[in-house]
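Slide 14.
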Amino acid sequence: MGNTIDPIASQSAWQIANESTLLSWFAKGNYAYDNTYLFSATFRADGSSRFGKNNRYGYFPSFSAGWVLSHAAFWSVDEISFAKLRASWGRNGNDQIGDYSFTTVVSSGQNYVFGPNETITNGSVALSAANPDLKWETITQTDIGLDLEFYNGQINFTGDYYIKKTSDMLYASPIPLVAGTAAPIQNVATAENRGLELSIAYRNIEHSLHYSLGGNISFIKSEVTGLGTGGEPVYSGTVQSANAKASKTDVGHPLASFFGYVTDGIFQTPEEVEAAAFQNSGTAPGDIRFKDLNNDGVIDIKDQTYIGNPTPKFSYGLTGDLEWKGIELNLFFQGTQGNDIYNNTVRYDFTYVNRPSSVLDRWTGPGTSNSEPRVNLSDPNQNARVSDRFIEDGSYVRLKTLQLGYNFPSSWLKKVHMEKCKVYITGQNLLTFTKYQGLDPEIGSVGVGSSLELGIDNGFYPQARTVMGGLSVTF
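Slide 15: predicted structure.
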């Protein structure tokens, strides 16, 4: 060691290690009477090292009951071969936050100048503010459902109505930059989702032709019912810089609703700029006109309002399967309807990078455009501010999977000592129908890891369209 390390020079070494521990207890009980009345209960207790000692443990019970109506003595509906009424209530928890969020994490190696000789001294800084009262995010759900089977399983129907309440939602709520640390994780809100889920499936077997069709649809209504941050709204969804948020969570509105300015076309002449509400000192023809919602003659934060909802009104799926004389066809469609997307990739185009083809339709003089503003890299009018200009319809329907295959007849395979042989071709994301102009509308909650970061397209890599062929052989 002495031959390799300078004893005079300052030496340092470092290593990063994160770890977390989960300790759980679990109990479950089931009871059935006459295969008609069904009961189940579970209880689990989880202790997570990601929370401080004040709230380390969470307790999560659940109960369910079912009544098989078709097994009852009074049942006499021949067309319905199976009927079951069920209800359940349960609670679970979420601890998906970073390790050590409940305490202050200190980083060394932060040099500072100290003393009359201005000596450079090695110091440490706090990376985040501690929150020793941080606790489990809990999800409580009540569900009432009905299962029906017609004609000995030829048609199946399932319906569910649920109420889902999320309490103590975990989120890194912003704090002033002068605090000098990263935003601490806090329990910020309570939200309630009410929904209806329906599914139906039909299958038929006619000689050599087998086929089945299925569909499901889910309706949901989301509303924030409480705030745990002193009643203050929570702003989320960074879209331009650390100080620009596109989403607002407040009581009485859907979770993480888009919040910003409302546009009103493009200024065409200096006279229009002069006659409108004051926006900025640099506002000029070709800039976006924003609506003065409170009619005070000035465009400011008081003119912001809700401009979109990232939660779909409903989502759905369609499946189809066919088998005929060794030929197999399987397909699956999925889609959403009524959700909005904040196309943040357009915002990036206001910097020194390549621009989309829409810039060719920009304003260049009176009457040339009433939607695409003039090009000005300094953006004196703040045309890039959060507004409904970036809100797009995120509804879509997509052919998610398609597979076509052929099973060779067993009479052929016996001659070559094979048991099974199938050749197939599979495609994924082959077709997408949408009005969204971004790369991929299927972005609802992808990549950001927070229930308050919804529907914002920051330019994530789109899902690939793939085609794959294969051969499966069994000897």
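Speaker note: The CA atoms of residues 66 and 86 lie 4 Å apart.
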